[in-house]
Give the backbone structure.
Amino acid sequence: MQTNKNAYFDYAATTPMDPEVLEAMTPYFTEFFGNPSSVYSFASKSRSAIEKARNQVAKALNATPEEIFFTGSGTEANNWALKGTLEKLRSKGNHIITAKIEHHAILHTCEYLEKIAGAKVTYLPVDEEGRISMSELEAAMTDKTILVSIMFANNEIGTIQPVKAIGKLCRKKGVLFHTDAVQAAAQLDIDVQDLCIDMMSISAHKMYGPKGMGALYLRKGIRLENLMHGGGQEKGRRASTENTAGIVGMGFAMEKMKISLPQEKARLCALRDRLIDGVLKAVPHVKLNGAKNDERLPNNTNFSFIGVEGETLLLDLDSRGISASTGSACTSGSLDPSHVLMAIGLTHEQAHGSLRMTMGRHTTDEHVDYVLETLPGIIAKRREMSPLWEDYLANLANQKKSN
Ligand code: PLP
């Protein structure tokens, strides 16, 4: 149970395991440990548990069990979709379209494919709320385009893309459509058929399931080259002894998530909107990053506070028991601003002063109150000490004079 001194606001990074999910998994570590590929009847316990989980995942997405392939993570599912498509369709074309705000599991895979495998990749820009433009997507397509990979919802700013429109366009053009739904699948009702999705990556640890478990939805009839070579598991398409307990956990976590989704979505939207309104009211010179209401993940908030370093803010919040995150990523020793925040047009200063607070099953009104009581004071104090803030105020005063 969380207390105000342990206010976890980083559900987009990972979620706590649901104790019932852990309970469902445990026998498959100890009692029913048989290798699902073994022929004796004892191992059939593992096999049937895996197939039950495949059904649970498929049902949650309106897919068929044959279309679900378990992987070791969302990252692996993304790698498989991109690398497997290029290898399979290389004779047709080598052009992939993605967006500048994708997770690094997509962006770094694309960079790798450009460098190693002769791929041509178009990185679509996004508007100031983080959305791609449908006309730019259509204009980017060529007769060499084999794949469009656009994330369902962004992990930093929560913006939801026009997935159905993208799916329909891709189908019309005969181009495969993959979506990274690692964040979205935990919070939105996803029907892969209705949305015209060909491939979709999901991850269990964002939905109260185990870490190191993912899946790729592959629409019936789509053939990809394998990413993992070895045994004949997953119908010969993903080698490696199955993580039976992890698969059981993922299936059950997804089933539970789907049942509670309508209520939980409404509850989180209310918390999110209260947090956003509260911060915008209590803190001057703050910017909300990302889209509004319906086009934003129910649990996501992301702000930029001028004159404050996001990293310092995180430490201040941490000292008050609040765990949050910033858009900045520390890459090879240098603190680069978030590629997502830069893509939506923020200045370096705004991107460096960013704070992401994401909520989930255990977040309460009291946690939101606690943040609203704590955060404004921290920002005011940091600004008092900040030369950046002084410069900003001086610039503002000059601008007013010259107007
Ligand atoms: N894609 C998105 C949008 C994510 O947010 C994440 C993880 O944060 C991933 C992919 C990677 O998923 P995993 O941690 O399961 O490898």
About this structure: DSSP finds 13 helices and 14 strands in the chain.
